[in-house]
């Protein structure tokens, strides 16, 4: 019995000894692997840090500079094809002309009407031209106001055109030669003041000739020759006409909820009707000779803005637009108190005003834009010094 017990104890102890031997062998191998890894890391450290360190010390260079992040010297955030930033500047007079009515930009000149001479009743009795390069202003010396206010100024080269308007309705269209300092009468009108559009030597406007009749006029400001292009018999009303060097456009309502585009194209000394079919919802079209922009709603306080190039299928530019205009290579519009520029030859739109400001578009022509910054406008302030800013849109 004792022998049997002795054999049983020997049989149990042999596996335990084998297990201990295996554990010891594992830790020996693990230590060997760690030692090899440590040696390899040391070798790599010498290669990557030791040799360069010795090299830097030999050259007398601060070793810490070797591992600083490198910055490309010519790094720029500007990407190829992205339009340049549009910079706005203020037309400033140190409260000399607090009222700056309907500023209109032409090249490096801005024209506006103002209260040049103060009286018992506030009136717009002066016309000012401002040079955006020199910052100098000029009050036109030989203007003669027959009625209440000078309004709606436009400019092309050395010829300015504006209205001498009666508050009760009626007035006259005046021209002014800036070189000769000479005013001349273009036409009298008896009803609502016409909206003027001037491009090159051509002045275009719609004039009411009664309660239900309108006439479309084109006037050459150089030769001072008028022409009646079309007489509209009883109509529900046409939009203002807009003219460029190569065409002019307007919209005609039929009284049944439809409003369609009308267009006249200029060919040297001739002109002909050349309509584009944009459907029955065309209001307030404007042209630069290549693109036509218009809204699809009669209400202009919040509208959808559309644009067509060369008479092609119109594309939508924006919703919720308050007002708009067109320049040589852009459409400018205001929306929720901000001014935006949409380029006509690229899929880019630039936001040119700050979200912290409130702005209203005044005019656009050529490469220039004029707008009011109304951030500080107060209805409680009897003396209002209007802030007018202007910007030039670069070529894309």
UniProtKB/TrEMBL annotation:
It comes from Christensenella tenuis. The chain crosses the membrane at residues 26-51. The keyword Membrane applies. InterPro entries: WD40/YVTN_repeat-like_dom_sf. The keyword Phosphoprotein does not apply. Keywords: Membrane, Transmembrane, Transmembrane helix. It comes from the Bacteria. This is Dipeptidylpeptidase IV N-terminal domain-containing protein.
